Automatic annotation (TrEMBL):
Signal peptide: none annotated. This is Diguanylate cyclase/phosphodiesterase. It comes from Cereibacter sphaeroides (strain ATCC 17023 / DSM 158 / JCM 6121 / CCUG 31486 / LMG 2827 / NBRC 12203 / NCIMB 8253 / ATH 2.4.1.) (Rhodobacter sphaeroides). Residues 1-257 form the EAL domain.
């Protein structure tokens, strides 16, 4: 069966799932889980659990991404509404990946408003993640969209920061709340002075501009210690938790210490 046909039926058959990866932050009481990144999975009836790489690029090329991103937005907001009723989870925010084409589409703001109305969630607990590449095609529209979303209380994060083409001018031109440093820089931390220098540069840039920073892909205590020493406060990565099918609220004791 063609992927297009299967994707068409996947929403109707309720085959998509959201996994959550914890986002942690150093606060007054130590390291805490402050939010969750929503990461889509497809529970394919024959092929098992599929990662986004197996279908998101195809969905982007063929336009299915519109329905998928709408589904994710709604499902993540519904989950957020459930957390709001749960004392162990009501402090959590959720971060949602949005494809560029969808983010820049005329209907996107309306789609977001509908989901907010339907679910009644607090918009200040929602962050939308877009990649730099997304925005290159239409900076003016990206800016307008971001201002519109921000006026609702939603935060905007630039994902995979540092790997695109015009990162620095984006920071000047776009109302971005959060930078998520691409995990490739962290991977090469121990063996590359260049990676360390770039990371330090990004940390300084964010702090100087008053933009929040998230270091992605933290896998080892050594990486975590280095980032902390450089002033980084918010992190994601396998050291703290992998994507799982329900929002995790507790860190392993050896990590939170
Ligand atoms: O979960 P995993 O690390 O395999 O995700 C890989 C990438 O897939 C993410 O970095 C993100 O760019 C993309 N992705 C994950 N979930 C979603 C989603 O719900 N919508 C869109 N558009 N992209 C997603
Ligand atoms: O930035 P993006 O949205 O693409 O990042 C999410 C992806 O990164 C997910 O597919 C997730 O599984 C993966 N990921 C999250 N933490 C880590 C990590 O510490 N190491 C590695 N290699 N991948 C990670
Ligand atoms: Na992301």
């Amino acid at each position: 069966v063609a992927l297009a046909q299967e994707l068409r039926e996947a929403i109707r058959r309720d085959e998509f799932r959201i996994y959550f990866e914890p986002m942690v932050s150093l606060g007054e009481t130590g390291l805490e889980i402050v939010g969750q990144e929503a990461l889509i999975r497809w529970e394919h009836p024959q092929r098992g659990l599929l990662a986004p790489i197996a279908f998101i690029p195809f969905a982007e090329e063929t336009g299915f991404i519109r329905d998928i991103d709408r589904w994710v937005l709604r499902a993540a907001a519904q989950e957020l509404a459930r957390w709001a009723e749960d004392p162990a989870r009501r402090h959590l925010g959720v971060s949602i990946n949005i494809s560029s084409a969808q983010f820049l589409s005329e209907e996107f703001g309306q789609m977001v408003r509908e989901v907010l109305d339907e679910t009644g969630v607090d918009p200040t607990r929602i962050e939308l993640e877009v990649t730099e590449g997304t925005l290159l095609s239409n900076l003016g529209l990206a800016r307008t969209t971001m201002m519109d979303l921000r006026s609702l209380g939603i935060s905007i994060a630039l994902d995979d920061f540092g790997t695109g083409f015009s990162s620095l001018s984006y920071l000047r031109d776009l109302p971005v709340d959060v930078l998520k440093i691409d995990r490739s820089f962290l991977g090469g931390l121990s063996d590359s002075k260049a990676n360390r220098t770039i990371l330090e540069g990004i940390i300084g840039l964010a702090s100087g501009l008053g933009v929040a920073l998230v270091a992605e892909g933290v896998e080892t205590p050594a990486q975590f210690a280095w980032l902390r020493a450089k002033g980084c406060r918010t992190f994601q990565g396998y050291l703290f938790g992998r994507p799982v099918d329900e929002a995790q609220t507790q860190l392993a004791p050896e990590v939170s210490a």
